[in-house]
Design a protein that fits this description.
It is a single chain. Helices cover 73% and strands 0% of the residues. By secondary structure, it is an all-alpha fold. The protein has one domain. α1 packs antiparallel against α2 and α1 packs across α14. It starts with a helix and ends with a helix.
């Protein structure tokens, strides 16, 4: 793996997190009330269908992260330190957020958007979610990633024992599981771990077989697949929200949030293949790598139990809705990018002051204890 290609994949991490932020912007931001939304309402019409398309593109970002894991880890051995670092970073962010909120409540008062989370039974839920984030599923993506790392030695043994044909057949099976819920909406064996394994398997396939098959992945073909997949997703969103009897019979009206799971995965795969070989200028490599290193931190801040409420409430209050649709789109892009870089700076500071020193200290103590024993 060349340094050039590593930098390109770091750029993919940034793009993936921007897509996830855009998804959560659509869900939680409200131009009209200037208060955050807990969820995006499902309504008929093309405007709402397009909003859900952006939400579903958040899964494109998640898919890219899982693909990157498979691309890099398929030939790696099990490493408990990798799992600990991921879990401990999540714990530090989650626990620190709670302690900060408690401190603010003691010296002043709880912000109105999270006041209900700090009283009664909700307080117990907040404590559990903050100090047991993996067990309590406080961050579904990080939880799925940790489970993926736990399964890594078994997955690698399985995948490395396959030839390309068998590997492709496994991907087809996982693809079927992703869309099975769309058939009457009754049965689904799809979950976060299967999702992570699917993305990991795609990344490992690219690592193992891309060079032998790259003639099939022309830029024009990949872009066409992305456009067609996006169009189908948009049509599905429109039809699923149209109160159609057929859509209701198939259970599509209850699947609007994730839509056709397979299509964001396909788009994420095409995006990865388009960009993982991209050559980045030398002068941008250092800054790209530095920003990419904060992407997990960005996720842990803006998807925190308290963080997303405080963030989107604040942003909704200070932003005014533009008059024209073009200006509105530009404003949305500007807000997402501004939030990204603001949270990136906050994550960089927190990681360097709190997370990394504590992680290093704990690992050194554990290594010393192990050597002594």
């Amino acid at each position: 793996m060349t340094k050039r290609r590593n930098t390109s994949i770091e750029l993919l991490r940034i793009i993936a997190m921007l897509l996830i932020l855009a998804c959560h912007f659509i869900i939680h931001f409200d131009w009209n009330t200037h208060h955050y939304n807990l969820a995006l309402k499902q309504q008929p019409g093309w405007s709402n269908a397009f909003k859900w398309l952006i939400v579903q593109y958040g899964q494109v970002g998640v898919t890219i992260f899982f693909i990157i894991s498979g691309f890099f880890l398929i030939n790696k051995t099990f490493n408990w330190k990798r799992i600990f670092k991921t879990w401990f970073q999540m714990f530090c962010y989650s626990a620190s957020f709670f302690l900060l909120i408690v401190f603010v409540g003691i010296i002043w008062r709880y912000p109105s958007t999270i006041d209900s989370l700090m009283h009664g039974r909700e307080l117990l839920n907040s404590i559990l979610a903050s100090f047991l984030p993996f067990t309590y599923n406080s961050y579904w993506f990080i939880g799925a990633y940790i489970l993926l790392l736990l399964c890594l030695p078994f997955l690698n043994l399985l995948i490395n024992s396959m030839n390309s044909k068998t590997h492709a057949q496994m991907l087809l099976l996982l693809a079927f599981l992703s869309i099975q819920i769309l058939i009457f909406g009754k049965v689904s064996y799809w979950n976060n771990l299967i999702y992570a394994i699917f993305g990991y398997s795609i990344g490992s396939w690219i690592q193992k077989y891309y060079e032998k098959n790259k003639q099939y992945f022309k830029i024009s073909i990949l872009l066409t697949i992305i456009l067609i997949s996006s169009a189908v997703m948009l049509l599905f969103n429109y039809y699923a929200s149209s109160n159609s009897e057929v859509a209701s019979f198939l259970g599509w009206n209850n699947q609007i949030h994730y839509g056709i799971w397979l299509l964001p995965i396909i788009i994420g795969s095409c995006t990865f293949i388009l960009l993982f070989r991209l050559e980045t200028p030398n002068k941008f490599r250092t800054i790209i790598t530095a920003i990419a290193s904060t992407t997990f931190g960005i996720y842990l801040i803006h998807e925190n139990l308290f963080g997303f409420r405080l963030l989107w409430e604040f942003v909704s209050r200070i932003c005014q809705q533009p008059s024209f649709i073009c200006l509105k789109v530009l404003a949305m892009m500007g807000i997402v990018i501004t939030v990204f870089f603001t949270l990136s700076l906050a994550a960089w500071v927190f990681d360097n002051i709190i997370v990394q020193p504590l992680t290093k200290l704990i690992l050194e103590r554990l290594s010393t204890s192990k050597q002594q024993s």
